[in-house]
Amino acid sequence: MTNVPELKELLRKIQEPQGCFFNRTQEQVEALLLGLLTNKDRYGYMSCPCRLASENRDKDRDIICPCVYREPDIKQYGSCYCGLYVSKDWNDGVVPHQHVPERRPSADKR
């Protein structure tokens, strides 16, 4: 996959059956998907564009999209940290849109 529309369609098919939907703000989704593709070109893996990657796949396994923090973020806040993935209720305005705090431990604690 080499472009945002292809990545978007691929991820949509995989994630929606799991109850994870793209944020309804398409400009944000497209910017984040472009960040994932940029990180794939840069590092060889799609690390979360909202977090600083170490350039070491093993150290960054927790932030390869979808990151390990997505599920608890969506469960608690209706949205993941970067806002790419959200619940249906978040998109429908049933869940309040609030800041999702960073769950990833700082580098010195990993």
Automatic annotation (TrEMBL):
GO terms for molecular function: 4 iron, 4 sulfur cluster binding; metal ion binding; oxidoreductase activity, acting on iron-sulfur proteins as donors. Its EC number is 1.8.7.2. InterPro entries: FTR_bsu, FTR_bsu_sf. This is ferredoxin:thioredoxin reductase. Its cofactor is [4Fe-4S] cluster. The keyword Hydrolase does not apply. Heterodimer of subunit A (variable subunit) and subunit B (catalytic subunit). Heterodimeric FTR forms a complex with ferredoxin and thioredoxin. Catalytic subunit of the ferredoxin-thioredoxin reductase (FTR), which catalyzes the two-electron reduction of thioredoxins by the electrons provided by reduced ferredoxin. It comes from the Bacteria. It catalyses: [thioredoxin]-disulfide + 2 reduced [2Fe-2S]-[ferredoxin] + 2 H(+) = [thioredoxin]-dithiol + 2 oxidized [2Fe-2S]-[ferredoxin]. Keywords: 4Fe-4S, Disulfide bond, Iron, Iron-sulfur, Metal-binding, Oxidoreductase. Belongs to the ferredoxin thioredoxin reductase beta subunit family.
